[in-house]
C-alpha cells in the first residue's frame, strides 16, 4: 500500500481527534445540581428558575432520627450527619387519616429553598397547617417566595394527630411531640442554615392555620431558641 507524506503528517492529529471523541463518550456531562458542604457533609439539591432568578432547593433533609417503633411516643433526637445527603426528593409525609403509601412514621424531614449562592440572607421558617391532624411540608412550595423575597425559606414535617399530641397523663405518652419536633427543626436551622447562605440570627417563624398557632406557641416558649420574630396571621 502506498502512503503519502501528507497522510503520515496528519496521522497524529487524527489520533488526537479520535482520543477526544473517545473521552467525550465516556465522561458524563457536567451536572447543574447544586451542592452544599455542611460540616463535612455533601448535600445535593435541585436547581430551578423562578421569575428570571435561579433558586436552589434541597428537599427531604432529615433533621431528627426516626420516631417509629419504640421511639413512637418519645421526644425527637437530632439526626446523625451523613457524609452524603440526597436532597433531590421530598421525604415521607407524617401519618394522617386516611393513610397512604407516601406516609411513614419516619417522617421528620425538612426542605430548604434559597436563591443561588445566597450569602447571609434572612430566613423564613414556615409551618404547615392542617389542624394538627393533617398536612405536610411537601405541600408548600417555597421557590417563589425565595426568589421574589430574596430570602431563604424552610418548611418541615412534624408528627400529627395521636402520634404527635396524645397525652396519657403518665410516662407512657407525655404529649406535644409535634411541638417538640418543631423545636428540633428550629434547632437544625440554628445549626446548619448558615451553610445554605442563611443568617441563623435572623429567623422568622410563620405559619398557616395550625402552623400559625404553632408559631405563636413557640414564640412564647422558653425553648424557642434564637428566632427573631414570629408571625401567626
From TrEMBL:
Domain annotation Carboxylesterase type B: ranges: 34-223
Keywords on record: Hydrolase, Signal
GO molecular function, one term: hydrolase activity
PROSITE patterns: CARBOXYLESTERASE_B_1, CARBOXYLESTERASE_B_2
Domain of life: Eukaryota
EC number per UniProt: 3.1.1.-
Gene3D superfamilies linked to this entry: alpha/beta hydrolase
Top EC class for this record: hydrolase
Signal peptide range in chain numbering: 1-32
Family to which this protein belongs: Belongs to the type-B carboxylesterase/lipase family.
PANTHER family listed in its UniProt record: CARBOXYLESTERASE
Name of protein: Carboxylic ester hydrolase
Organism of origin: Pomacea canaliculata (Golden apple snail)
